[in-house]
Amino acid sequence: MQQLINTALGGLTQGMVFAAFALALVLIWRSTRIVNFAQAPMAMVTTFVALVVIEQGYSYWLAFAAALLSGLLLGAFLERVVVRPVEGKSEINAVILTLALFIVLHAGAAVVFGNSYRSFPAPFGIRGFEVGDRTIALTGFGVFRIVSVLVVMALLVALFRYTDLGLRMRAAAFNPEVARLLGVRVGRMMTIGWALASVVGSLAGLLIAGGNLVHPGYMDSVVVYGFVAAVLGGLDSPLGAVVGGLVLGLSLAFVSGYVGGQLVALAALLILMVVLTLRPGGLFSATAERRV
């Protein structure tokens, strides 16, 4: 029973890590219709910005704010300078460009920050809570992860469903020509979409790094599972990203705990295949309506 509870709690926490990254992918997809493969190294760079601030003797929360601000600026800069020239052209151009950014940011971070492993602190305890005479696999930082992801999900739902900005961002992403005719500044919406997605990605990077060792490739193992979580839930749904992350996290935790850690990657592939076979658009995809 103790193992079952700890496995479930471990899967819950890990699933929220996948969900945090998936939310960044959902945000940039909904606002720009681009799958950003550079999301992980962008988050890694901002996490190292936070680490530099901490190593200079400043508080974790100042570093937290610095990471989010640097993410905002980095996302806006990359959209305006790197991605903007290929917008409006073939969709594959932007995808290839983000793959190139993945490589460039990795290499640049290794040059600037080095390749050595460095410890990243956590703002809350990383020791499991004690219930009676037992310690469960849920930490203070794990609770912080869960709350942070749920808050971001709620904010994204509110942004796209209840705000004029969210409506303009979606209009600019779905049909830029018509949006321009309606007075939407499409270029500005694209910049805002990249900037906000980079902020959410920066948060994901901080949640993954807390209490662990970081290096330029520390997010690589999470990237694939984050993409899988986003696709499972449906790239258009913030709620789907969280549910996809939880389904994936819990499933992989039970596979690792009861079957074998070497089968985790295979289990993720099988889950993805089953969901895409039964529901190609993801668990929370909506039926597209066409009008003529």
UniProtKB/TrEMBL annotation:
This is Branched-chain amino acid ABC transporter permease. Its main location: membrane. Keywords: Amino-acid transport, Cell membrane, Membrane, Transmembrane, Transmembrane helix, Transport. Belongs to the binding-protein-dependent transport system permease family. LivHM subfamily. GO terms for cellular component: plasma membrane. It comes from the Bacteria. CDD domains: TM_PBP1_LivH_like. GO terms for biological process: amino acid transport. It is a multi-pass membrane protein. It is found in: Cell membrane. It holds the Pfam family BPD_transp_2. GO terms for molecular function: transmembrane transporter activity. InterPro entries: ABC_transp_permease, BCAA_transport_permease. The chain crosses the membrane at residues 12-29, 36-54, 60-82, 94-116, 136-160, 189-209.
